[in-house]
Amino acid sequence: MVVSAFTDMDTFPNNLPPSGDSGLTGSQSEFQKMLIDERLRCEHHKANYQTLKAEHTRLQNEYVKSQNELKHQLNEKQIHQEKLQLLLQELREELIEKTKDLEEMKLQILTPQKLELLRAQIQQELETPMRERFRTLDEEVEKYRAVYNKLRYEHTFLKSEFEHQKEEFARILEEGKIKYQSEIARLEEDKEELHNQMLNVDLSRDSKRVEQLTREKVCLCQKLKGLEAEVAELRAEKENSGTQVENIQRIQVRQLAEMQTTVRSLEAEKQTAKLRAEHLEKELQSSNEQNTCLINKLHKAEREINTLSNKVKELKHSNKLEITDIKLEAARAKSELEKERNKIQSELDGLQSDNEILRATVEHHKVLLVEKDRELIRKVQAAKEEGYQKLVVLQDEKLELENKLADLEKIKVEHDVWRQSEKDQYEEKLQASQMAEEITRKELQSIRLKLQQQIVTIENAEKEKNENSDLRQQISSLQIQVTSLAQSENDLLNSNQMLKEMVERLKQECRNFRSQAEKAQLEAEKTLEEKQMQWLEEKHKLHERITEREEKYNQAKEKLQRAAIAQKKRKSLHENKLKRLHEKVEVLEAKKEELETENQVLNRQNVPFEDYTRLQKRLKDIQRRHNEFRSLILVPNMPPTASINPVSFQSPAMVPSMELPFPPHMQEEQHQRELSLLRKRLEELETTQRKQLEELGSSGE
């Protein structure tokens, strides 16, 4: 409108009328009209100018305000940048402190070296009590075995001695019975002879003789009562010895039961030790799992791996040395057991040889007895021819034989004493039996002395009979004595047969005892070998488990180390890429902020609506492209977000949390190529953005 008004004013002088006064009046009126119009137009233009001037001043003020706001925002941005730098410095300091704390925690946390040391300590703490326990168990088993063998040997020895004493008592009783029966027969014969003499001799003399005989009879009855009392005492001693044997057997049965209970308790303790070892293995497994988690979190260095491998080698070497030590200890224990076994066998051989020597001496004595019995038979036959004088000689020889038997028994006692001196362990238990034997021998000697006294009295009576009797009576007495000698011969033969049977029984019992002892020894050796085999198998299984666990532990450790190395490499690659992308994103965000400020400035300026819509469309297109490019750079697999709002960009702090699908085996060349492509794209974007900014600036102007 202003331009058109100026054009009309320029054309105004050309339209004036050329003719006279009428024309002047008409022209004056027209001129006045035109002047009025022009004045109106001028006023209108003036009003327009004033409005435009006011708008211009307003726009200038707004421009100044916007510039001031821009400066204020720039100052705020600088302040924010300074604050961010300070925060960055603080965060870096905190990072350094945290790294220091992490290193301290690493030092405090269980490293594989400390783990190995703890494992070795736990293994030593477990192995030493278990070894001591096994050693004590072996010692207790050997002690109980020795006690069992000792008790069994004592039982057999006491049993054999009891049977021997029983047989001796039976033999002594039979001999005493035979002697007393022979004496009673003789006394009855003497009674008959005296009765016959009483018929022939004076009554006074016979009365004296009867009184003397009655006195002798009373004495003999008293002696018989004493002998019967001694027999009763011997029987009581026999019963006492039987009760003692039964008590010993009960004690042995009780000790065997106690030994079985101890063996069961030891087996239960062994099972508890096994359960404890399994529980400790489970705890070790759990601790190993925790340690693996810590190892995964801490990412050990290559130096620690080398030290760990060296320590593993050292541990293998130490384990091999421990295994060799255990084998040497087992061999030593085996050799010691073999030595003890050889010692026991040598002692048994010595005892067997002593027993055989004693048996040979007994057999030799038996042969001598048989020969002497034969000589006695011959002498008896000669005595039948020679008469009563040879009987005295036979009795003397019999006494000599009894003395020799006593001497042989003394030799046997001395030999037993010598054996007892060799066996110091059995002295206390054998002293009672030796005392009993000595008492019985003393009693036997006293009985023999009494018998000798009786024989002396009988001989005196026989001498008196020989002086008082006639030759017929002597012949009859000789015949009676011959018959008694025949009976005694038969008795001696029977006793010899009994002795032979007893010897054979003793031999059989000795053989049975020997076979039982050998069987018991074989069973004990078998049980020992089985237990040793079981212990060795258990030891071998434990070693195999330990080796398997160590192999698994080493394999897991190697896998973890490899995974840690791969994770470190991946982390370093991702960190480098993220740093580069963060730098690019920061550059793009700075450019975006500049574009936004320019957009705001342009929006505040007075721009036509068409230009504004066109520029807005172009800005949306640029934002869309920028978002697509950003999504391609940051998350190439995700679809591009076509958001119009510029605030919808993700903050750079959220980028590291996103999972970037970079392959771990990416090479350096491919990385360099991608970086070069990204640089080219960024340069193209910068050029396009500059062009667009120039276009926007030109359109705004």
TrEMBL record:
Organism: Aotus nancymaae (Ma's night monkey)
Residue runs in coiled coils: 42-108, 170-414, 441-632, 668-695
Region (Disordered) location: 1-26
One term under GO cellular component: centrosome
Compartments where found: Cytoplasm, Cytoskeleton, Microtubule organizing center, Centrosome
Coarse class of the protein's main subcellular location: cytoplasm
Record key words, sorted: Coiled coil, Cytoplasm, Cytoskeleton
Biological process per Gene Ontology, one example term: cilium assembly
Annotated InterPro entries: Centro_Cilium_Assembly
Protein name, per record: Centrosomal protein 83
Domain of life: Eukaryota
